Give the backbone structure.
Amino acid sequence: MEKILILDFGGQYNQLIARRVREQNVYCELHPHDMPLEDIRRFDPIGIIFTGGPHSVYLPDSPKPDPGVYSLGVPILGICYGCQLLAYALGGSVTAADDASAREYGKTETVFDPSCALFRGLPAEGVTWMSHGDYMARVPDGFRLAAHSASCPTAAICDEIRKFYGVQFHPEVRHTAYGREMLHNFLYAVCGARGDWTMADFRRRSIEELRSRVGNGRVLLALSGGVDSSVLAALLSEAIGDQLTCVFVDHGLLRKNEADEVEAAFAGRTLDFRRIEAGSRFLERLRGVTEPEEKRHIIGGEFIRVFEEEAAKIGAVDYLAQGTIYPDVIESGLGESAVIKSHHNVGGLPDNMDFKGIIEPLRLLFKDEVRRLGRELGLPKSLVSRQPFPGPGLAIRVIGEVTEEKLSILREADAVFRDEMAKAGLDQSASQYFAVLTNLRSVGVMGDGRSYDYAVALRSVQTSDFMTADFTRLPWELLDRVSVRIVNEVKGVNRVLYDITSKPPATVEYE
Ligand code: XMP
């Protein structure tokens, strides 16, 4: 398989570069900038990308790759800091832009030289996304200028003999017009990629690897019904069939019909699927509890207990499978602390469970790739494209004490909201949306009588990373329909509110 190596110099868009490369069907991995030359050789990349970063290349302790990287005969694309690094290492000069006009941040009109392989076939002018305080004062021997902007004569450089390219701007960011095409040119025209990274191949390779690793052993998977663990269950099921046991703990805090949907998605497969009905014991433990952190703590602890009980019943399990995905690996230090993080992924399972090993077949995939793999494995769209759902479930969407009655009101209201969002075709464009049962009760008039019922809050947000979020500008007509339906169809609710707070200062969930 052809591979691109991305060396990480600490820039904020590094994950994005990796995703943009994979989107073009070329496999890539992000590695620390000081990856030893021997490891780079073994990785055998068809091309190398240097990312951006917050440093200045001329400072003594700024991050640098092994200088042998320039003699491997492998094409290199340097982005921003990576571009300056390339210039500096090969004999050019880079200095701080004393004159403020030479610093560039944000959208910048840029002129390209279409004879450079990076810009071939593209318009000669376009907007690029710049973010740099240093600039290349002199380009190294063998290089020529390939793009400029009003304030920066060295917006791109290239040495087409050695196949070294540098861009001062960020082609991976959507604000750069034709950034996708520039990366495509680097991958296909410069590095000679054929585009052999497909989910069909990944599926085939993973299944072979899993079979050879697991042999006749038994694998246990804690299945939450979320995208990652569901896709993993389908992959493992195809690889090792009935040597897999999936434990799905229904903690009674799921949305309407959710547990049945998860079960139905796995019913036809030859795997040992165990649905553990644990709703009453979770509710029992939550009785009288109103403090959000205490709720979360109780649910996490109880989940571990139920899972351990089931694992003991199954006995003789060799491997624990976890749905760790690539962002978890990158965020936890490029693999160094992946195991700790992945324990967290399966609801904080204890470290002292006795397994021969941990299996994480999705650890090199991004979320959108996991979804594509899920489709490839024939999982229903409703499961593969589902929005995130928190581990503590509806318990953190019922404000105050959680009771069966309140859960039932919330399930119905949430189902109406989801139904109307789907009918309006907004279910895929909103990042996450749900109903919350507030603990506010207020006076209303229904028929000729007075009511004193709950207020339901609707929440819908737009976000790419869930670290920050903006509320969705939902159409009034839709909100009107949802409100009328909830008040009419759900007993116990007489008021519907729409949450127009962003994160920060609010969070996505209420507790
Ligand atoms: P907040 O409320 O922190 O939520 O803005 C951000 C994203 O994280 C999800 N979330 C959780 N997911 N276990 C999870 O697996 C949790 O305990 C949890 N709490 C929040 C939330 O749904 C949103 O997508």
Q: What stands out?
A: The radius of gyration is 27 Å. Confidence is low (pLDDT under 50) at residues 334-347. The chain has three domains: 3-190, 199-384, 403-498.
